[in-house]
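task queued by scheduler; priority normal; single chain, no ligands, no partner chains; default sampling; output format set to structure tokens
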Amino acid sequence: MMEHRGLVIGLTGQTGAGKSTVATLLRERGLTVIDADQIARAVMQSGSEVLAGLASAFGADILFSDGSLNRPLLAQRAFSAPEQTARLNAITHPAIIQKMRAETARAFREGVKAVVLDAPQLFESGENQICDFIIAVTAPEPLRIERIMKRDQISEESARLRANAQKSETYYKEHADILVRDYPPFDLPKELEPVWERIRQFDAKKNPESCF
């Protein structure tokens, strides 16, 4: 387990549930958010070892002629079956975890008191183990499918493949500390109140005069 001097908050949930909106609100409140998706894009740049591993596992044609990744084609193959998704994770997770931990350590060295690990694969990667508490964002499947189609400009079939490759809402309810809903009739600011309370409790122990 990684040692840390501040609070580590896990942020995860189902694709299309509203996790990015929650991450934005956490940033606006002054928290440092480390985005696993951004890191994944960085470690899968042209010429990287990770990209070479993906091409070997899923076919050389997942690369365009310039060596960059054809993300829709990779997604189609990687999310077609659980064993294929596991294969994808085995190739990408080690590099993503290494970089996330390095960025977390750097943030604490710079005096940041709380870091948010924004990671859709938080549990699958095992990084939930270094979190002080975990927020999971969920939403009904029809709404998530609609959001994914609009966000990624993909077909309903492709959107369902991505949604079905993730864990169920029941799993998140059982394994997360705080469940957040970003859809009517739920009010997102109220949904986040337990998050702020957890941070205040932690901060009060470290700095009794804090007024986070």
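post-processing summary
- The two ends are 28 Å apart (CA to CA).
- The longest helix spans residues 82-109.
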